[in-house]
């Protein structure tokens, strides 16, 4: 399946927006882990902005930047939101509350705990009527989400916003499901060539290949292994290079093969 990448965003530890992340991915700047300083979720009404948590704000930040980069109206976009962990901090808070004698759970915490909360905030913030899907596919969430987004883009003949995001999980769950650093990225995919296109992505599933590519930089390679959403860093690095190439992403089963051809 061939789709055109029209816009892109990356926010994560040591990666502050696409313009900065591109320089790091190109090797022009050294990657240094650092706290993520997100812009405010300005698309949300004041009440929803207060209720939203860090995970939703991360997803909205990358989604908004990718749409701005692509020069498209967010309200017109179908959406595919992919996260392995969901909001682990909220789940930990709810489980801690349930373990107390009172066992009272905040309604705000409860509605933030559902896996599609970031997608819901996105549709509210932009008054969307187009469908938005939320996926959770363990360590393969990035690859499966990209496959879903590319397939929907081709089949529906419509642009699709793909967003992948994950945060570390605190508490007892975080000791079992270990994720480090914060990471989110977004891609605006278009079914037809566009003047603002960055590159063409030819996406296919290879069930027989289990190996996958990782970034050349040791620090970014560690980030790719430490955060499920960052599993797509090898693809993002290939896109930032502005050169033709192919990348294999971990999927289940096999791998997702992505051929990158600059426009």
Automatic annotation (TrEMBL):
Q: Name the SUPFAM superfamilies for this protein.
A: Thiolase-like
Which GO molecular function annotations are given, in alphabetical order? acyltransferase activity
InterPro entries hit by this protein: Ketoacyl_synth_N (IPR014030), Thiolase-like (IPR016039)
Q: Where is the Beta-ketoacyl synthase-like N-terminal domain?
A: 32-202
Q: Which domain of life is it from?
A: Bacteria
> What protein name does the entry list?
Beta-ketoacyl synthase-like N-terminal domain-containing protein
- What is the species of this protein? Acetobacter okinawensis
């Amino acid at each position: 399946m061939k789709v055109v990448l029209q816009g892109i965003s990356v926010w994560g530890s040591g990666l502050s927006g696409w313009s900065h992340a591109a320089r790091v991915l190109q090797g022009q700047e050294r990657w240094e882990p650092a706290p993520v300083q997100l812009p405010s979720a300005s698309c949300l009404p004041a009440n929803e902005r207060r209720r939203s948590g860090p995970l939703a704000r991360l997803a909205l930040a990358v989604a908004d930047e990718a749409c701005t980069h692509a020069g498209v109206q967010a309200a017109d976009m179908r959406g595919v939101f992919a996260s392995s962990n969901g909001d682990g901090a909220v789940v930990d808070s709810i489980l801690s509350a349930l373990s107390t004698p009172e066992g009272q759970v905040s309604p705000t915490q409860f509605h933030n705990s559902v896996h599609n909360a970031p997608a819901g905030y996105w549709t509210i913030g932009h008054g969307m009527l187009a469908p938005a899907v939320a996926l959770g596919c363990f360590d393969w969430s990035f690859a499966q989400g990209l496959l879903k987004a590319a397939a929907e883009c081709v089949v529906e003949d419509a642009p699709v916003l793909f967003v992948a995001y994950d945060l570390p999980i605190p508490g007892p769950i975080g000791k079992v499901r270990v994720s480090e650093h914060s990471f989110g990225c977004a891609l605006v995919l278009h079914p037809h060539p566009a003047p603002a296109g960055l590159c063409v992505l030819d996406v296919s599933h290879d069930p027989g290949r289990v190996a996958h590519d990782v970034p050349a930089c040791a620090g970014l390679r560690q980030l790719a292994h430490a955060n499920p959403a960052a599993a797509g860093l090898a693809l993002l690095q290939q896109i930032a290079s502005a050169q033709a190439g192919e990348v294999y992403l971990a999927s289940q089963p096999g791998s997702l093969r992505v051929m990158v051809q600059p426009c």
